[in-house]
Amino acid sequence: MNILIVQLVPPSHAPDRPRFCHELGLAVAMLRRRNLEVALVAMSDYDRDRLRSAVTRHRPSHILMDVPPHRHTLARHTIVEIAERHYLPVILVGRYATSQPEQAISIPGVTALIRGEYDQALPRLTAALATSDLSPAEVPGVWFNSEEGLVRNVPDKPTADLDTLPHPDRDIFDYGRTVSAEHEAAFRATRGCLNWCAHCLNDWYIELYGRDGYLRRRSVDHLLAEISAVVERYQGIQGIVFEDHAFATDAEWLARFAEEYPRRCGLPFRCRVCLNAVGQHTAELLARAGCRQVDVQIGSGSNFIREEVLTLRTSHNQILNGVSSMKRAGLAVRGMVFIGVPYESEVSVEETLDLVTALKLDEVVPRIFFPIAGTRAAEVCAENGWISGRGEECFYVPRSVLEMPSLPAERIDEIFHRFHALLRSRSGHSLAAWWRRIRKLATQPLHTFGRSRRRQRPRGHQ
Ligand code: SF4
Questions:
Q1: Which of 253, 376, 273 is nearest to 321 (CA)?
Q2: Rounded Cα gap, residues 455 and 156, in angstroms
Q3: Domain range 2-152, its CATH number among 2.60.120.10, 1.10.1040.10, 3.40.50.2300, 3.40.1010.10
Q4: Measured between alpha carbons, how far is 388 from 404 in angstroms, rounded to an integer?
Q5: What strand order describes the sheet that includes 149-152?
Q6: Distance (Å) from CA 194 to ligand 1 centroid
Q7: Tens of pLDDT, residues 336-390
Q8: Which ligand 1 atom is nearest residue 201's CA?
Q9: Is the pLDDT confidence value at 452 over 80?
Q10: In angstroms, rounded to a whole number, what is the distance separating the alpha carbons of residues 301 and 354?
Q11: 195: Cβ below 6 Å to ligand 1?
Q12: Helical spans, DSSP H, in 168-270
């Protein structure tokens, strides 16, 4: 059996450079252990010639796709083209297959899909498709169009001990090119997440597997062994990034990591931190380990939007305390906020600007909210009739796809584009703020002018 992975990469990405994906890399490692031929072609848009040349070169028997959440339309178009032009069956895995299986299995050309984590199920499915000893209908987690109709199998429990898994294959992603372009290597210490954010597809996995045992963590040794192997194999890595949202949620694990990482790797790293799970101790452990920057999800300054709409479960005080703990520990903090979340208004935007100004973050990343199909936040938008006809390309432009009476799309786009200018005007560093100060001085009565100048003098110089 010969598998060609068709990877849809973001339009901003180099059109032919694969994007490293932990889950796919792991699946490739598992398939190669079974001596299966696996190749990959990356496309930022449907590229008929590129696909044809990949099919001619690799002669696959099956196509495998892990469809990104913002590329459903492109994926459907690509799958239909694959079926009509190349007569190749497509297997779908990942978040789209997990959250929208009915829609995914009904695309002409899709022969099977796997719901949930696919590192165990995919090798079994490929074995079943390659021999007659096992039927795909017997593989847990697989949805399969059989002669008797659609088979919907419930997934097995996910892999409990992550140390039993091989390291993800990176060569298939041409990882040397990624390192040359980004000078960083990406890793994950955990799988699963116990949070329940409304804009994320994580709750589909919690629904499949339950909360007990869903968040799993590799041992420090297993993680560091992978880091050493990757740093040795791909020259030019200057930093490490831990992409998992639960990376820093276990203080005991982090304490051991802080002991071992500087000794066995020592490259500066950045990671994500959940503000509802960070205190001074965690911040200091991160700093001691060699962390330089943390990425935090702030979401919104409005308590209603953050806690009720996005269900981030992070209170205003947790944000203030978490950020100040990390700053005290000497970590740079980069915060992400959404603009144009369901129920957003001028008032909630002001609250976001207020909060971000008060936090004095090292960097702020504003994002226009995009309702990912299958999320609870997208359901709220659909129920209220707020989803416009604008398509997925808006995620990358970026433009709002929502039409909400409380904040029109044009205004959301405008706030997004002016976000940093709005912040500067609040913190007093803008030209407008500077001009306001000059005008204030110029129009200040003379008797108060002198007094205010004196107040600024250091003591002892009266
Ligand atoms: S913390 Fe991250 S991974 Fe977890 S539910 Fe929220 S957005 Fe998803």
A1: 273
A2: 71
A3: 3.40.50.2300
A4: 9
A5: 37-43, 2-8, 62-66, 90-93, 110-114, 142-146, 149-152
A6: 8
A7: 999 999 999 999 999 999 999 999 999 999 999 999 999 999 999 999 999 998 8
A8: 8
A9: no
A10: 7
A11: yes
A12: 175-182, 202-209, 220-233, 251-264
Closest CA to 121 of 157, 77, 148, 82: 157
Cα–Cα distance, 315 to 306 (Å, whole number): 8
| Residue that has been written with the tokens 């209170």 in this structure | 315
Q: Assign a CATH topology to domain 183-429.
A: TIM Barrel (3.20.20)
Q: How far apart are CA 415 and CA 418, in angstroms?
A: 5
Two structure tokens written together for 9: 């990469």
Summarised one tens digit per residue, pLDDT across range 243-282 is 999 999 999 999 999 999 999 999 999 999 999 888 999 9
Q: Determine if ligand 1 sits within 6 Å of the CB of residue 273.
A: no
Determine if ligand 1 sits within 6 Å of the CB of residue 124. no
Domain ranges of the chain: 2-152, 183-429, 434-462
What is the rounded distance in angstroms from the CA atom of residue 175 to the CA atom of residue 211?
Answer: 34
Tokens of 69: 């959440």
Task: Name the nearest CA neighbour of 14 among 190, 174, 244.
Answer: 174
Q: ipTM of this model?
A: 0.99
CB 33 within 8 A of CB 27: no
* Nearest atom (ligand 1) to Cα of 203: 5
- Identify whether the C-beta of residue 195 lies closer than 8 Å to the C-beta of residue 313: yes
Handedness of CA 23, 253, 225, 159 (dihedral sign): negative
* Beta carbon of 99 within 6 Å of any ligand 1 atom: no
Cα(70)–Cα(84) distance, integer angstroms: 24
Residue type, 304: F
- Nearest CA to 330 among 299, 289, 298? 289
Omega within 30 of 0 (cis) for the link into 155: no
SS (H, E, C) 68-107: CCCCHHHHHHHHHHHHHHHCCCEEEECHHHHHCHHHHHCC
Pocket probe mutation, ligand 1, options 245, 276, 296, 376, max atoms within 8 Å of Cβ? 245
How many residues can be counted in the chain? 462
AA letter at 124:
R
